[in-house]
Amino acid sequence: MNNTEAYLSSSNGYTIFKYDEYVIRFIAPYSLERYVEIKEWDNGYIVVMTKYEHNSYEEEEYIDLVPILENLYIDVEDFLKNIEKVSVLYD
């Protein structure tokens, strides 16, 4: 893994955000099939194209990591400071 790149994926109803040694899981939208492409990364705010089971087309969605990190008592500024890019990555 690259020290300036984080990775977004989903599995079993959860969104997975991986960066450095952190693996953060939180509930994904109910019919999410997969994340397709990161459109924008803005210091904790992600614009991502998604594919849902109930639609034949991709949709733009938004993820705000700041409140998630705060709820986990992670220092938001310190955590986000080195992330330059987020990519979709499925193992």
Q: How would you describe this protein?
A:
A hairpin with a 2-residue loop joins strand 1 (5-11) and strand 2. A 4-stranded mixed β-sheet has the order 3-2-1-7, with no helix packed on it. A 3-stranded antiparallel β-sheet has the order 4-5-6. The chain contains 2 helices and 7 strands. The chain has helices spanning 65-71, 76-80; strands at 5-11, 14-19, 22-27, 32-42, 45-52, 58-64, 85-88.
Layout of helices and strands:
Blueprint: E1 5-11, E2 14-19, E3 22-27, E4 32-42, E5 45-52, E6 58-64, H1 65-71, H2 76-80, E7 85-88
Parallel strand pairs: 1-7
Antiparallel strand pairs: 1-2, 2-3, 4-5, 5-6
Low-confidence stretches: none
Order of helices and strands: EEEEEEHHE
Overall form = globular
Helix content: 10-25%
The whole-angstrom Rg is: 13 Å
Mean pLDDT across all amino acids: 95
